[in-house]
Amino acid sequence: MSLLTRLGRPEGSNQQVRIFASQASEDTGVESYLLAKQRVHQRIIDEMTMEEQKVLLAGQQDRNQVEQIIGGYIQQFSEEDPFAIPRGYRSQMTNDIVNDMLGLGPIESLHQDETVTEIMVNGPSQVFVERMGKLELTKVKFRDSDHLMHIVDRILAPLGRRIDESSPLVDARLEDGSRVNIIIPPLSLKGPCLTIRKFSKKPFTVENLIAFGTMDHKMAQFLRACVQARVNILVSGGTGSGKTTTLNVISSFIPEGERIVTIEDAAELRLQQRHVVTLESRPANIEGKGQITIRDLVRNALRMRPDRIIVGEVRSGEALDMLQAMNTGHDGSLTTAHANSPRDVLSRLETMVLMSGLDLPVRAIREQISSAIDLIIQQSRIRDGSRKITYITEVQRMEGNTITTQDLFRYVQTGLDENGKSVGKFVSTGLKPSFYDKFSLCGIDLPDDFFEAENQEEGERY
Description:
By secondary structure, this protein is of the alpha/beta class. The chain folds into three domains: about 5-100, no CATH class; about 105-195, Beta-Lactamase, CATH 3.30.450; about 205-460, 3-Layer(aba) Sandwich (Rossmann fold). The chain contains 16 helices and 16 strands. Helix 13 (about 320-325) links the parallel strand 10 (about 310) and strand 11.
């Protein structure tokens, strides 16, 4: 009697097992493999000794020991029936079962793959990843929705979070800093959906962004000068445009010796300065109590004697508190917001301030914005998947009821190369910012011709 028969496989010939071995690359073969793995996994659990279970519970500290135990069981089962688990799949099954027990199951290898920046699970049968700004459909599958929910529970258990039909969505942070969003039925019609935005183990530097083509040396020099001169900066862009990465990079320009308070929904910033206080918001508990919002944290940060406040992203009423902080002695503060252009983000800020619940005149809101925000960095994901700073725009004074702005730098696309990659250049517009005098007062020396306009080739503008 083969292992699969003992574990409940419908009666049939050994040829059925060999089909699994020969067709592992086909859908039916994958399903057979997943079914076999499930049964082997269950038998291992049933036969584990108490000592082995203790090792499993401590497995995060010693994965190798768990692999030895699981590998031993699979070797034993294979000796009992050489055809039950084909030789070429024994190592893979050992690794997959250990991942189910200790890691993220079928997507653990994607989570460990440094070329993958985002993992998107659309139900048990469809897993996409993002590599180099492009989406790819993988061959990874979960056995069924229950298997996927088992991994979801594994993710949430150490975080002290829960998900069920009464609370069917969760936004959280993994232990390694990666952001995870989970949504389940009845809100998700395709089964549980899981999105993981991976946390880079090594923070990107300004040199990295220059190498990636996100900005050029001149823009980097200007942004460094702005941060050191305590200019208030807003990074704007769409989802996945690289706003947080750029915010993290320009935050590295803040001099040592300043007290920095960072505020985020899920901590992603990795500042290297010595004096950094990291605050993270908290959702309500099961009873609907205990919620601490970004707005609560911004208000509290003002009582913590910060030199600078960095808010990971403003989405609603906290925008008013952030603007007031910028207007009351906390120069050099930084934040991000979702918008498609510098002009759009100013309109969005107006809407967010109105969400604070205060009935303020529109002109008063615009005056707050124009006096608080000095510079907008507009970041976009180009059609080829690359991220680029498409505009660096100064926010100027009010003229009538309108906030005036002027572009200082922009990206001009001139075409595509033979590989479909964007071809273009970063250019100065020839305009000098009104806060230029701040640079000399802070001992920052920019050449006289730094803002001189460059020749621009005709091309598509973003």
